[in-house]
Each structure stands twice: as structure tokens, then as C-alpha cells.
Amino acid sequence: MVAVKSFDLATIESLSRVIGEFLSGSQITKFLGECAIDDPGFNTTKWRRLYDSLSLKQESDRCANNIVNFIHHVMRPSRHFDKKNEFDEAREQLNRVLSFEGLELEETGVVKPVSKTTTIAEADARALKLKQNLLSREVHQDVLSFCKAELLVDNYFHAVFEATKSIAEKIRTKTGLDLDGAALVDEAFAFKSRIPHLAINSLQTESERSEQKGFSNLLKGVFGTFRNTTAHAPKVTWVIEELDALDILSTISLIHRRLDKSVEAQKMYSGRSI
């Protein structure tokens, strides 16, 4: 692993406060031990214990590698499958701090390098500007939730990526399906010889059936163009600028509105065919 430049002590303090709020005292003891980081026992306050342990480890190592490894260890998603909201909130707060060191904690629990933020205002300004522009377009509330500073530290890459993922999550929530991407869309909206899980209209006329098929194709196009691409392409080769982000997020807003109004047809008419 390439050496990570030592963190500013203010960064370590802020990281310790976030992690201390997220973890119990026994978890802190367990995870420090598993990462071979000594707990000097100077303090009983959770965040101060973490600060003492992490700052002394960095001083000994002369780099921040073991602090990053500790964050990896603590923030493994599999540890927190039963408290997603708390995990997401902790990750958001950690990213606000890590952005000042040019790092970002991804949803996978891995810390990756990003463009360094130098001020809180810089981290927040881009998010505020995007949100205001989207508000002027009256976009769906579910899209506004992705106007977060930690998603916009580099460019608009992660805001688009996360917003696109929210479409699949809403479809899964409404249908109970455990699929993703095109397979999810096909299973949720297919209606040939059966009632679909979701219908955006009554499917009684040829025009309505064409609209249902067209909406399915739109969903698969968004997944294929933006979500799948951003999931696999390095950010340096997939730069999304503000105007592109506004247009993409507006399209995602339209999709959310149609999903909100869709009928959970298969649940309503279980056992019937069309």
C-alpha cells in the first residue's frame, strides 16, 4: 500500500468524534485490538480514546496508513447491514472530514483518493449550488437528497451515480424483488400474458402498453448509460460537469415521479391475467 501522508491532528480529532459517536465503547476496544492499535487508556471518553490511539499510531508510523486501515475495518458494510441509516450518516460525516485530506470513503467501505478540499465552504458551495438549480427545476425530493458535499468533492460523478441507484432501490421497495439493473426492470414491468409488478397506466390500449414498454426502455437506458458506466469507469475518464448533472438528475426526477404514481398491479390483482 502506498504511504498515506500523515493527517492533520484536527482531522484525527474530527474523525475520532464521528467514529466515537457511531461505535460503542466495547466496539472501539475490539476494533482497535483487531487493527493492532494500542489504546493508551489516558481517557475514558470514546472520542478521546480514539484520538489518543490514532494520533500515537500515526506518530509511530509517520504516516496515516493505519488510520485509513482502521476506517476500512470499522466501516465494512457487512458489519452494519442492520443499521443502514446510521452507517450512511456516519459515512457522510467521515467524508466531510476526509475530503480535507483528499480522501473519500465509498459505500463499499473502501477509502479512495479524490481532489482535496481546502475549506468547508468549498465542500458545501458546490452542493448548495446544485441543490438550488435543481429546486428551480422542481425536481423530486428523492433526487435532492443526493446534493451532498461529500458526493461533489471531485465533480458530479457520485451524485449521479447514487441518484441512479435510488431508482433501483425504489423499484425493489415497491415490488419486493431482489434483482438489479435490466433484470429488475424486465421483471417489474413486463406484462405479456401476466399482470406486471408495476404499471404506469391501465395497459388497456395499445398506446398505454407502448408507454409502459417505453418507460421500461428509459429505465434500462439510464442504468446502462449512467449507473453501469459510472460503476466501472475511473472518475478521471468519466467527468460529469454541472450542466450534464442537472439534465441527468432532472431525468431521474421524472422517473421517480412516475414510479411514485405507478400502480402495484400484481399485488392488487394477484392471480389474474391481462
Would you mind describing this structure in some detail?
- The protein has a two-stranded antiparallel sheet.
- The chain is elongated, with a radius of gyration of 22 Å.
- The chain folds into two domains: 105 residues; 149 residues, no CATH class.
- Helix content is 60%, strand content 2%.
- It is an all-alpha fold and 274 residues long.
User: What do the pLDDT scores average to?
Assistant: 87
Largest sheet: 2 strands, antiparallel
Name the strands of the widest sheet in spatial order: 1-2
Strand content: under 5%
Number of strands: 2
Give the number of domains. Answer: 2
The helix/strand class is mainly alpha
Unreliable sequence segments: none
Shape descriptor reads elongated
Fraction of helical residues? 55-70%
Distance between the termini: 58 Å
Specify Rg, calculated over alpha carbons.
22 Å
Query: Secondary-structure element order, as H and E?
Result: HHHHHEEHHHHHHH
Query: With helices defined by DSSP (H or I, 4 residues minimum), what is the helix count?
Result: 12
What key attributes describe this structure?
274 residues, 2 domains, mainly alpha, two-stranded antiparallel ribbon, elongated, 12 helices, single chain
What is shown here, in short?
With 274 residues, the protein is mainly alpha-helical. Helices cover 60% and strands 2% of the residues. The protein has helices at residues 9-22, 25-34, 46-61, 65-74, 84-98, 120-136, 141-144, 157-175, 181-189, 206-232, 242-261, 265-268; strands at residues 103-105, 111-113.
